[in-house]
Amino acid sequence: MTNIDQTEVDKFNQIAHLWWDKAGDFAPLHLMNPTRVNYIAEHANGLFDKAVLDVGCGGGILSEALCKQNAKVTGIDAAPDSIEVAKLHAKESGLAIDYRHITVEPFAQQASQQFDIVTCLEMLEHVPDPESVIQSCCELVKPGGFLFASTLNRSIKGYLLGIVAAEYLLNIVPKGTHDYEKFLRPSELVRLIEKYGLKVTKLNGIHFNPLTKSFKVNSDPGVNYILCAQKL
Question: Are the CB atoms for 75 and 60 separated by under 8 Å?
């Protein structure tokens, strides 16, 4: 495991017990999750019986939702405590999810082109080398399969809303969650994905309404954004 920021791993290990506290540090992910799942299902032509890899699965919030849509889900993460939480919660929920404590680069060597769908959501901003992650994710997608990636835009709007407002004014996420320098502009992420053989077919913003505490997909990728790419 070379492409990890140990500080980030330690941070997630320390709060791993909070993954399934819907009012805690991971509340935004719980609120965002239905929007993400619907986006994936819509643009991948459904999830039934498809092999899905959740890269940076954390405690399993997305993995479990995909499994409940009858996908065959594998989840990988660099934080061992998060994986243990994910395994325990899936067992308690009666869900068959294959969780593994591994980073995506060595996993891609084991499972090249084995997945109909690969998701890499809200994790690129937490690794030293996002290009390495993207390259491995692209290798894991079957021909004709899909990659979904989301992160924060390295823009003025991304800084003001993604850090200043979210972390310090509205307290939506814990202070220090994000490092602005690790954000990726949409053009940068699209270039990386298409460099490794996939075609980006859709790119949207994900907007948070603090009044209704809900997320929706829109056309403005100024802060949070998500994209769909297909291996041709």
Answer: yes
pTM listed for this prediction: 0.93
Interval 58-84 mean pLDDT: 98
Is 156 exposed, middle or buried, given 0-12, 13-18 or 19+ CB atoms closer than 10 A? exposed
Give the span between the Cα atoms of 232 and 229, in whole angstroms.
Answer: 9
The C-alpha atoms of residue 129 and residue 102 are separated, in whole angstroms, by 16
Report which of 137, 126, 134, 129 is spatially closest to residue 52, judged by C-alpha positions. Answer: 137
In this prediction, residues 101-112 reach a mean pLDDT of 98
Give the pLDDT confidence score for residue 151 in this predicted structure: 95
Q: How far is CA 139 from CA 110, 112, 132, 134, 178, in A?
A: 11, 6, 11, 9, 27
Which spans in 27-129 are helix H? Answer: 27-43, 61-67, 80-93, 104-110
